[in-house]
């Protein structure tokens, strides 16, 4: 197949090196690929490797840096990406860098002043201000001193929350979170799973409910929450946009049993199986694994000889997507 | 540091009550483990145990000639040491793991330092003067809970794998004893490890107890009982830890029965694995590169 | 006791290598469940583990730097790693010195200015020591940092060289190291051709020094080629499963 050249050839001039090879610019995913032996190859670089010789008009993205001779070098081991003049290298695994608008699951580590500090598997703990949180009663009001003293009754240390990344990072590099919408807030009565942040694709729906009654929240930061879907939740959230630990005593969490619990275990094990095979985690792949594991008990799903078997369909799905040339831009990873 | 919220704890406790733990196991289900022996060349014996792929411990055994314990002049002796590496958790850096190391070492020592576990008399070289000292050094590389059991399995495997060099004791003319250690690597004796027990840890969570807890389950447990069982089904040592107010004696008996049953199953499994390892050629071992 | 023949008449060393030959290398990444990056590295019979945490929140208040990440290094040898059992694993002087030296090496290479107010921990554990442990640990740490996605100026590699009976040798094993000749551990940034660690003990003439240095540099380049090739291969395999993440 002859080289497929995008009409925006000017962008390609940034790097003269690839002129000799057949270059395919997947126009939607911005990744520079070469077709060698009929197999798509991305450009993998290691730290210190040269990407562009003359980088005076290129912009250095993540994972790159400019040296004294104005060359653009890679600083990590990963895949080269180009968006117009911005060149960056994405490592396969890294701490969650954070993007505005991302849905994340976090654990409260500290309560200081008017803010909570939240661990979201990022380089620094994120910050959630008292003003970014909906208080019980739902009414937006100015926070009083009493609210400040009662912060612990809203979210206590070690509690899990689901929140949204609020605005640009603080001056010290930490992210800010907010839980203003009724979808966000404290998480109760379920299972927490930690995976590599890079495996959670950015997609439209981070709150997903499976047909068999399990709800997952796939945090972009690699923290995942699995619980039982309850229709009652909708009403609860409407009347009480904010679910606090004080309310927990009043509405005792329903004890999840039987088939529901087993399904939750299955979803958890499916997610861990996907992680062990380094596959992206999103509802379709989780379903693939669960389908393939129907015959076995959930505890067997995490055995090292079983995980490659049950993730076969998921792997095939991912590889199929790789071969389709016009893929949807689903910008997951970093 | 792994942390857990009160709500997650409740979910876990409910699951245990219903006999369905978070990973799908029932209360008395043990996770799968793998054993590899003979990985470290500079030791006299070594073993690596991986429990559920995430708990990783490496045990190295070295034997040296030294002074016997004055209370037991005609026996060899044992020195056990456990070290938790920061690769398991960043808080094990520097002195962070001291307390953990002490607890784990004490548990192992308690289990092994027993007249009947190893034939200590065979390790005596010259009564009152010299004997073999067996140094057992354990390294915890990664933890997903239940370090006690993993360490006991690894220790038994490492001791099984240990080759003690053959020696010749000679009396010189001046009445001094001289010891010559054989240089030949194929000239060795093995330790009799058939009586070495392994431990089974039962954790009390809520009103039930579970075997082989994960880290999250360990955070929810009120107390733990570690029971050492040998292949005859005898109970060799019992240790209770944890902050609960206590365990009912009748419940305790039930726990012992279960531990015994599970221990015997584990021992059989372990013996089969060790036999397989014996017959495996060392050159095919991949060790950590797998 | 017979004198060991370090170089045979045919020019072979005690383990059959040529003077400029580096030992066989093998490694594996991502071994531990909690560390952000980890590596198992073996060079001949020397086997080491490295685990990296970070960049993450600084644990000791007041230790954080407002303009860059702080690096924390710990080197330790397992008590069973050497021929004679070691008494102390961590806090003896040699381990502390090596920890400091390795930390300084990486402080100059990691792009710490990108992550102010964070900390990066590098923990190295020697499982089996057969000469060249500090070099093996640097290589393992480099791989672990790459595994954790932490940006560095270059792929730091390290190799030691020495001289016995007038012959310059690369990558000394324990027997050769104990021969009493000079030992020169070196760490370089291979693409930029810069030295980031250089130590030497015993004594050499300037000409001998040049020769041994050259051997060490060549050794580093050999190691870099091996590590780089395998890294690209492993990444490629993972990527071909994972492309939708881009």
UniProtKB/TrEMBL annotation, chain A:
Domain Exosome complex component N-terminal positions: 44-83
Main location: nucleus
Superkingdom of origin: Eukaryota
InterPro entries referenced in this protein's UniProt entry, alphabetically: Exosome_cplx_N_dom, Exosome_RNA_bind1/RRP40/RRP4, KH_dom_type_1, KH_dom_type_1_sf, NA-bd_OB-fold, S1_RRP4
Cellular component terms per the entry's GO annotation: cytoplasmic exosome (RNase complex); nuclear exosome (RNase complex)
Gene Ontology biological-process entries: CUT catabolic process; exonucleolytic trimming to generate mature 3'-end of 5.8S rRNA from tricistronic rRNA transcript (SSU-rRNA, 5.8S rRNA, LSU-rRNA); nuclear polyadenylation-dependent rRNA catabolic process; poly(A)-dependent snoRNA 3'-end processing; TRAMP-dependent tRNA surveillance pathway; U4 snRNA 3'-end processing
Any one Gene Ontology molecular-function term assigned to this protein's record: RNA binding
All residue ranges annotated as the K Homology domain in the record: 190-231
Cell compartments where the protein resides: Nucleus
Keywords: Exosome, Nucleus, RNA-binding, rRNA processing
Domain RRP4 S1: 95-167
Pfam families for the chain: ECR1_N, KH_6, S1_RRP4
Sequence similarity: Belongs to the RRP4 family.
Protein name: Exosome complex protein RPR4
Phylogenetic lineage: Eukaryota, Discoba, Heterolobosea, Tetramitia, Eutetramitia
From TrEMBL, chain B:
UniProtKB keywords: Cytoplasm, Exosome
Entry's Gene Ontology molecular function annotations: mRNA 3'-UTR AU-rich region binding
Top-level taxon: Eukaryota
Source species: Acrasis kona
Lineage: Eukaryota, Discoba, Heterolobosea, Tetramitia, Eutetramitia
CC terms in the record's Gene Ontology section: cytoplasmic exosome (RNase complex); nuclear exosome (RNase complex); nucleolus
Gene3D superfamilies named among the record's database cross-references: GHMP Kinase, N-terminal domain
Domain Exoribonuclease phosphorolytic: 30-165, 196-261
Name this polypeptide is given: Ribosomal RNA-processing protein 42
InterPro entries: ExoRNase_PH_dom1 (IPR001247), ExoRNase_PH_dom2 (IPR015847), ExoRNase_PH_dom2_sf (IPR036345), Exosome_comp_Rrp42_subfam (IPR050590), PNPase/RNase_PH_dom_sf (IPR027408), Ribosomal_Su5_D2-typ_SF (IPR020568)
One Pfam short name: RNase_PH_C
Annotated GO biological process: exonucleolytic trimming to generate mature 3'-end of 5.8S rRNA from tricistronic rRNA transcript (SSU-rRNA, 5.8S rRNA, LSU-rRNA); nuclear mRNA surveillance; nuclear polyadenylation-dependent rRNA catabolic process; rRNA catabolic process; TRAMP-dependent tRNA surveillance pathway; U1 snRNA 3'-end processing; U4 snRNA 3'-end processing; U5 snRNA 3'-end processing
Protein family per UniProt: Belongs to the RNase PH family.
Annotated compartments: Cytoplasm; Nucleus, Nucleolus
Automatic annotation (TrEMBL), chain C:
Record's keyword annotation contains Transferase: no
UniProt subcellular location: Cytoplasm; Nucleus, Nucleolus
CDD domains: RNase_PH_RRP41
Gene Ontology terms for molecular function: RNA binding
Keyword entries, A-Z: Cytoplasm, Exosome
Record-level GO BP terms: nuclear mRNA surveillance; poly(A)-dependent snoRNA 3'-end processing; rRNA catabolic process; U4 snRNA 3'-end processing
InterPro entries: ExoRNase_PH_dom1, ExoRNase_PH_dom2, ExoRNase_PH_dom2_sf, PNPase/RNase_PH_dom_sf, Ribosomal_Su5_D2-typ_SF, RNase_PH
Protein family membership: Belongs to the RNase PH family.
PANTHER family assigned: EXOSOME COMPLEX COMPONENT, EXOSOME COMPLEX COMPONENT RRP41
Protein name, per record: Exosome complex protein RRP41
């Amino acid at each position: 197949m002859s080289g497929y050249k995008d009409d925006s050839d000017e962008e390609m001039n940034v790097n003269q090196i690839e002129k000799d090879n057949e270059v395919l610019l997947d126009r939607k995913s911005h990744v520079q690929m070469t077709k060698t032996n009929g197999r798509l190859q991305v450009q993998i670089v290691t730290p210190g490797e040269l990407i562009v010789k003359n980088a005076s008009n290129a912009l250095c993205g993540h994972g790159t840096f400019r040296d004294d001779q104005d060359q653009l070098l890679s600083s990590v081991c990963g895949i080269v990406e180009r968006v117009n003049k911005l060149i960056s290298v994405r490592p396969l695994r890294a701490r969650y860098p954070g993007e505005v608008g991302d849905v994340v699951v976090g654990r409260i580590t500290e309560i200081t002043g008017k803010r909570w500090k939240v661990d979201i598997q990022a380089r620094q703990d994120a910050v959630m201000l008292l003003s970014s949180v909906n208080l019980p009663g739902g009414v937006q009001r100015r926070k009083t001193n009493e609210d400040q003293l009662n912060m612990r009754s809203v979210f206590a240390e070690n509690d899990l929350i689901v929140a949204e990344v609020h605005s640009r990072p603080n001056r010290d590099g930490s992210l800010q979170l907010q839980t203003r919408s009724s979808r966000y807030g404290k998480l109760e009565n379920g299972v927490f799973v930690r995976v590599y942040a890079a495996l959670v694709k950015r997609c439209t729906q981070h709150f997903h409910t499976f047909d068999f009654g399990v709800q997952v929240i796939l945090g972009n930061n690699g923290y995942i929450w699995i619980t039982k879907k309850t229709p009652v939740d909708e009403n609860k959230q409407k009347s009480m946009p904010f679910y606090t630990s004080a309310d927990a005593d009043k509405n005792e969490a329903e004890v999840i049993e039987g088939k529901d619990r087993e399904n939750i275990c299955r979803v958890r094990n499916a997610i861990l199986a996907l992680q062990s095979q380094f596959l992206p985690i999103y509802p379709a792949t989780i379903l693939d694994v669960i389908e393939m594991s129907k015959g076995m008990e959930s505890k067997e799903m995490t055995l090292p000889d079983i995980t490659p078997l049950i993730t076969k369909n998921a792997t095939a799905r991912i590889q199929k997507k790789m071969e389709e040339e016009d893929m949807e831009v689903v910008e997951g990873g970093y | 540091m792994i942390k857990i919220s009160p709500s997650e704890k409740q979910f876990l406790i409910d699951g245990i009550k219903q006999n369905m733990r978070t990973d799908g196991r029932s209360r008395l289900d043990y996770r799968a483990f793998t054993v590899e022996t003979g990985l470290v060349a500079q030791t006299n014996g070594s073993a690596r145990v991986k429990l559920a792929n995430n708990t990783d411990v490496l045990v190295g055994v070295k034997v040296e000639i030294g002074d016997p314990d004055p209370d037991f002049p005609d026996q060899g002796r044992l020195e056990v040491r456990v070290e938790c590496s920061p690769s398991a958790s960043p808080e094990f850096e520097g002195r962070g793991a001291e307390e953990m190391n002490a607890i784990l070492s004490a548990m192992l020592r308690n289990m092994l330092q027993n007249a009947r576990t190893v034939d200590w008399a065979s390790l005596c070289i010259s009564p009152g003067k010299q004997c073999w000292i067996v140094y057992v050094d354990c390294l915890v590389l990664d933890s997903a809970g239940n370090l006690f059991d993993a360490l006991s399995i690894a220790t038994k495997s490492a001791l099984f794998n240990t080759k003690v060099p053959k020696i010749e004791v000679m009396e010189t003319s001046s009445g001094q004893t001289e010891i010559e250690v054989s240089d030949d690597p194929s000239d060795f004796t093995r330790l009799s490890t058939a009586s070495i027990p392994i431990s089974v840890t039962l954790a009390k969570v809520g009103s039930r107890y579970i075997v082989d807890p994960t880290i999250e389950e360990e955070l929810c447990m009120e107390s733990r009982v570690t029971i050492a069982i040998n292949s005859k089904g005898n109970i060799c040592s019992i240790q209770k830890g944890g902050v609960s107010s206590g365990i009912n004696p009748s419940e305790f008996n039930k726990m012992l029965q279960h531990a015994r049953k599970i221990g015997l199953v584990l021992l059989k499994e372990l013996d089969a694995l060790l036999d397989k390892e014996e017959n495996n050629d060392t050159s095919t071992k991949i060790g950590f590169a797998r | 006791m017979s004198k060991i023949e370090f170089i045979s008449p045919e020019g072979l060393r005690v383990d059959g290598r040529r003077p400029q030959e580096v030992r066989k290398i093998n490694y594996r990444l991502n071994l531990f469940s909690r560390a952000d990056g980890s590596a198992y590295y073996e060079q001949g019979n020397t086997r080491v583990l490295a685990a990296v945490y970070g960049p993450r929140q600084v644990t000791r208040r007041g230790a954080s730097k407002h303009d860059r990440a702080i690096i924390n290094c710990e080197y330790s040898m397992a008590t069973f790693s050497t021929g004679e059992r070691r008494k102390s694993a961590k806090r003896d002087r040699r381990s502390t010195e090596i920890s400091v030296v390795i930390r300084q090496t990486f402080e100059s290479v990691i792009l710490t200015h990108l992550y102010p107010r964070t900390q990066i921990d590098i923990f190295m554990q020697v499982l089996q020591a057969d000469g060249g442990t500090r070099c093996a640990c640097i290589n393992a740490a480099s791989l672990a940092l790459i595994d954790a996605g932490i940006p560095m100026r270059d792929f730091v590699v390290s190799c030691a060289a020495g001289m016995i009976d007038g012959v310059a040798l690369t990558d000394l094993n324990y027997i050769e190291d104990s021969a009493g000749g000079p030992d020169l551990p070196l760490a370089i940034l291979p693409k930029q051709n810069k030295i980031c660690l250089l130590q030497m003990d015993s004594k050499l003439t300037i000409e001998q020094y040049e020769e041994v240095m050259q051997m060490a540099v060549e050794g580093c380049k050999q190691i870099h080629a091996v590590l780089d090739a395998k890294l690209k291969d492993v990444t490629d395999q993972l990527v071909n499963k994972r492309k939708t993440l881009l």
